[in-house]
Structure formats: C-alpha cells, structure tokens
Specification:
With about 450 residues, the protein is mainly α. Helices cover about 50% and strands about 0% of the residues. Among the domains are: about 90 residues, Cytochrome Bc1 Complex, Chain D, domain 2, CATH 1.10.760; about 40 residues, no CATH class. The protein has a two-stranded antiparallel sheet. The radius of gyration is 36 Å and the shape is flat. It starts with 7 loop residues before the first helix and ends with a helix.
C-alpha cells in the first residue's frame, strides 16, 4: 500500500499547543490573584484603642451624624481624630452641655462656637462617659483606603471582577479547540481519499441537484401560501408600528444630575409626596425644587459605603451631590450659600398629548391611587423611566376595574345610591360613574 504520511505528528503538535496555552493562562491567573489577596489584607483597618468602636458607630449615626462627618465639615467640624485635638474631660463637658461650657468663658469652646457660624450644639446629657468613649473610639479609627490592585500586563477591562478567568481566555480556548477539530476533519478527509485512491476505489461524484429556489418557484401552491403569509405578516407589523407612534413606554433619558429613586424612595423610604408635593393638590405632580433636595443634602454631602453598587461607585454618587451644590450655590466647606446658581435642565419623561386632561390630585388625593400603579416600582429604579404606556386603552381599562372609594366622601353618596340600583352592584367602578365619557379626559 502507498505510504500516505504520518499525520499523527500534526495532531500531537496541535494538542501540545492547546495544552501550552491553557497552562500559560492558568499561571497568569494565579500570579494575578496574589496581589489582590495581598492588597485586601493590607486594607484591613487597624483596631482602635479604648472604647468599643462598633457601638460607637451606632451612637455616632444616631446622635452625631445629622451635624457631623468624620472627614468633612458639615454643620459642625469633622470629628475623625478629635481625641488627638481635645482632652477627654473637655469632650465630656462639651457633649453633655456645650452652652454651659461656652457661657463659662472657656477659650476653646468659644473659638469653636464662633468658627462654626455660632450654631449651638445640641446637648446630650443622656450619653454616659462610656458612650462618649465608644464614639471617640469610632472617630479614632484610621480612614479606610481602597485596595490598589496591580494591573497585569496586557490585562483587559472585561475580566471578571470576582477573580475568575477572563472571558477572553475561555473564548480563545474554545475557538482554538474548534479550529483544531476543523483541521483534523480536513486531514482525515485527505487521508481517506489517499487510502481509497491507493486501493483503487473510485469515489462517486456528487450528482447535481435542482437549486432550492427553482424547486420553490415551480411549486405554485407554495408560492401562493407564502405570498398570503407575507402579506398578512406585513400588515400585522405595519399596524403594530403605527399603534406605537407616540407611545414612549420604558423611555429613560439621562438626566443632568443622577437622581436614584432606588436610594431615596427605596433604601431611605422617602415618601413620593415629600418631593412631589404638588401631586396632592394640583393637576401636575411638578418637578421638585432644588431647595427640597437641600433640606436633606445640606448635611448629607456624601453617601454611605453600602450605597455603592457594581455599576456606580461611592465616588460617583458623591460627585452627583457636588453637582447639586454647584447648581444651588452651596459652599459645603463654609456651610453657606454663595449666591451663584446654575439652572438644572431636567429632561421630561412623561408626556401626554395636549388634548388629554389628567389631574394628579383627583387620582392621588380623592381616589387614593398609589404612585406605583401608574409609575411602576419606582423604589427599585436607578434611572426613572416611563413604566406605563399612557395610552387611551390603558386608562379605560383602569377605569373599568377600579372601584370608586365612597368612605368619607359624601359628595358621591346620592349618585352612588342611584347608580348602584341601576347596575345592581354594591360598588361602582370609575367607568360606571362616568369615567368613560369623552369629556372627562378630552377638552
């Protein structure tokens, strides 16, 4: 038999190449894990001496955080390292009753009072010296620094954040395996052809077949059915497209200042009507003024460490708060307004047609409809979006299934009695009370 060549050597070379690549990838991953572990170990904060820092943090958040921050001036001065600047006995007197200490003429107390715009500090006689020691222990802890991870040469930004193997390495390995299989199939095909030729075996030539498009064109029934199907599908798609004109469901524009409903309405439990107070008494819910934001953010210049997510860091949220300060002209260092303001050009999300009438107060105050009914679970939104389609059909369906609240509303008593007899029901829906009349929603 004719010698066809040693193709096994080629396969061995390919498999050795694959093994070598995987070994290099694993070794690189192992080397990259070491600096991460070392940085995480180095980032562990040192334990504070004296007092319980954990209890001190709880006391600080409950009593001090409204006016003080650890590393920045708020209503009062920054408190990190206060034990190194003041004597403990003096701190006890200041916390228990700062006004008495100022009246006594204590030079340090008077100077501190004047440096902070002569704003008196709330007295805390209920805090024991042990409680104050715990707070001092918390304020004496060193500031935590973010771990620095050494970047590997040639590292990509899409590597997994949990220390796993890069997706590029996995995809590269799979691509290499597929390439090896293709090459092996080509080699096997060549070997089989050589073996057949050496043994005098004739390979039957491939018979020509009729192209599929010619076969389809000759079948008149298939052509007719396909034409009807395409016409119906096209009509359906055109109708669906035209029905969506003016419907902006899931519209979520980028705002000039990132306002997270997830943080405010979700984590902090701020009531919707606190910011959108006009919704209870007016047709429009209104855009909250920046003064409403400053009611809280006058003393909240940064978010907590637990607020950050994988997509948005603490530094990102703090920078957005600084945008608010720039807009209202607030000097957070000196705790006063500069008088220099900048307008914030918010992007409107919900837009009704000009011929549609909708009254927020009628729905929020009278009907007691929850905000989430129309606006969705806003407490989970990082970016506010249009949850509902706001179409005529959507409004009508809501009127058909929503019962009118009669309790404590004498305005509807007489008409409710008459209509309940007419329809033979105990509770009337908004549709039965005239909620489907054209003039209710259209001018």
């Amino acid at each position: 038999m004719e010698k066809v060549g040693n193709h096994n050597s080629n396969s061995r070379k390919l498999f050795l190449s694959l093994a070598l690549m995987l070994s290099i990838s694993v070794a690189s991953f192992a080397q990259g894990a070491a600096p991460v572990a070392a940085a995480a170990t180095a980032a562990a904060p040192a334990a504070s001496s004296g007092g319980d820092a954990v209890k001190g943090k709880e006391l600080f958040n409950a009593n001090c955080a409204a006016c003080h921050k650890l590393d920045a001036k708020a209503t009062g001065p920054a408190l990190r390292g206060v034990a190194s600047r003041r004597e403990k006995a003096w701190i006890y007197k200041w916390v228990h009753n700062s006004s008495d200490l100022i009246k006594s003429g204590d030079a340090v107390a008077v100077k501190l009072f004047e440096e902070n715009n002569k704003i008196p500090m709330t007295a805390f006689p209920q805090l024991s010296e042990g409680d104050i020691d715990n707070i001092i222990a918390y304020t004496s802890e060193p500031k935590a620094t973010a771990p620095v991870v050494a970047a590997l040469p040639g590292a990509k930004g899409d590597a997994s954040q949990d220390g796993g193997i890069s997706n590029n390495v996995i995809l590269g390995a799979l691509s290499l395996v597929m390439a090896i299989l293709i090459v092996m199939l080509v080699l096997v095909n060549k070997v089989l052809r050589k073996v057949a030729s050496a043994n005098g075996i004739n390979v039957a030539p491939k018979e020509p077949t009729l192209p599929i498009w010619k076969a389809f064109a000759r079948n008149q029934f298939l052509v007719l059915v396909s034409a009807i199907f395409l016409l119906l599908t096209g009509a359906y798609l055109v109708y669906g497209f035209l029905m969506q004109v003016g419907v902006d469901q899931d519209y979520s524009p980028i705002q000039p200042i990132h306002f997270s409903h997830r943080i405010h309405a979700g984590s902090n439990g701020v009531n919707c009507n606190y910011c959108h107070s006009a919704a209870r008494v007016s047709k429009n819910a209104g855009i909250p003024s920046l003064n409403v934001c400053m009611n809280c953010h006058k003393n909240i210049a940064e978010v907590s460490d637990t607020t950050a997510t994988a997509d948005y860091s603490k530094a990102y949220y703090d920078a957005e708060i600084n945008k608010l300060y720039t807009a209202v002209g607030w000097d957070k260092t000196n705790q006063k307004y500069t008088g220099v303001t900048q307008p914030v050009k918010w992007v409107r999300i919900h837009n009704l047609q000009s011929f549609v009438y909708f009254n927020h107060s009628q729905h929020v105050t009278v009907a007691e409809v929850a905000c989430q009914t129309c606006h969705g679970p806003v407490q989970t939104y990082e970016f506010q979006k249009q949850f509902s389609p706001l179409t005529m059909g959507w409004c009508i369906n809501c009127h058909r299934k929503t019962d009118v609240k009669m309790e404590g509303n004498e305005y509807y008593t007489k008409i409710h009695e008459e209509l309940s007899k007419k329809y033979g029901v105990d509770k009337l829906t908004a549709a039965q009370m005239g909620g489907l009349e054209c003039g209710k929603c259209h001018y």
